[in-house]
Amino acid sequence: MDRPDEQETGWRGSPELWVSAAYDALIEQGVDAVRIQTLGARLKLSRTSFYWFFKDRAALLSALIEMWAGRTTEPMVAASHAYAETGTEAMLNVIGCFLSETSFDARLEFAVRGWALQDAAVLARLRAVDTERLAALQQMLERWGHDPQDADVRARTIYLVQIGYISMQTEEPMALRLDRVPNYVEIFTGKRPPANEMARFRARLTA
Question: Could you tell me the pTM of the whole model?
Answer without folding.
Answer: 0.91
